[in-house]
Amino acid sequence: MYFQQGIHKFIGRNYLCLVKTEIGQDIQQAISLLKRGEIVGIPTETVYGLAADATNEDAVLKIFEAKGRPTSNPLILHFASIDSIFPYVAEFPDALLKLASHYCPGPITFILPKSSLVPSLITAGQETVAVRVPEHEMTLALLRSIDFPIAAPSANRYGGISPTTASHVQRELNERIPYILDGGACQTGLESTIVGLADGKVIVYRLGGISTESLSETLGYTPEVKNELHHGIRTSGMVKYHYATETPLFFMSSNQTEFLDTDGVILFSQEKRHSFPTESFILSETGDMNEAAKNLYAALHEMDQRKCSRIFIEEFPNLGLGKTMNDRLKRATAKFQS
Ligand code: TXA
Ligand code: MG
């Protein structure tokens, strides 16, 4: 069992050793835990990550155990700069490097051929590795102080909603991790956009915090989105559902008027507020897509806490980050379709 102190408890199929989970802003403490092979919650601009020293396989295994995530699902490596990525990849094609210099640090992840420095546990045995440079001052400061990359999936239990605050992480992983570095609420609020290259063209494998419209403008052409098979193998797009609440979640139909008092309603903007007798959560008073994205996961976490009988959410306009949010909600609502 991997924690030195604490009570051993049988959770799911595994014995987990429970520890006290601290929340703080002590970057040095996070660094020393990571150096000792422990796992730590870290803030990024997208969502909170569950970090481990990517070169320490025992530490990386703790990520999978704490999340309850199968090791067949590969992890993203996080770096302080584009330059620090080079030793870990066999190649960084110009087309992707151009995007990296435009967007990094920022919510974009690159799928590249890996170098021998990347353990196969990180890549689930594949020859490619996912890399990114997150845009968060605390995490960048942490990354600059260590000489290894950090492996970090989103800091939620497998299949759940990604956390966008330190207290979301605590709710998901309390007593499973020793420390959460509190960097406030995530600015983007949606996971990174994952891109790769096929036949010289950029492909989007996961819609994310950078819109396809923005990518099109930077590239000079519209990249193909292949987020259903998600690189063809064993990734989040392949599982039956993902990003899901505990409470049954449904898209609201445009003419829906029947609601129970116990239902929770999440609206994109003020526009339809008058139609709802029950208390509703407005993602952006002014209908701003970036603000809605920043608030989306917090709204889902909160509705789950309120123990509503059902949650209804308005579909977003299918453009910009609205496409990413609709994608996440499709995967989440799939859990509740019979
Ligand atoms: O914004 C983000 O990307 C956040 C923050 C913490 O950085 N991380 C994140 O990690 O969303 P995770 O593990 O929850 O999602 C990463 C996705 C998974 O669907 C995984 O299958 C895919 O990236 N992935 C990782 N390595 C891959 C690879 N070599 N080829 C294809 N997909 C890969
Ligand atoms: Mg995730």
Please characterize this protein's 3D structure.
This protein is an alpha/beta fold and 338 residues long. It is 26% helix and 20% strand. The chain has nine helices and 17 strands. It has an eleven-stranded mixed sheet, sandwiched between helices. A four-stranded parallel sheet has the order 14-17-15-16, with helices on one face. A hairpin with a 2-residue loop joins β11 and β12 (201-206). The chain starts with 6 loop residues before the first strand and ends in a 5-residue tail after the last helix. The site of magnesium ion has 3 residues, from loops. Magnesium ion binds at residues 153-154, 162.
Brief summary:
With 338 residues, this protein is α/β, with parallel strands linked by helices. The chain has helices spanning 27-35, 57-67, 94-103, 120-123, 137-144, 166-173, 212-219, 289-305, 321-333; strands at 7-11, 14-18, 22-24, 40-42, 49-53, 76-78, 108-113, 128-132, 150-151, 179-181, 193-198, 201-206, 224-225, 249-251, 264-267, 280-282, 311-313. Helix 1 crosses helix 5.
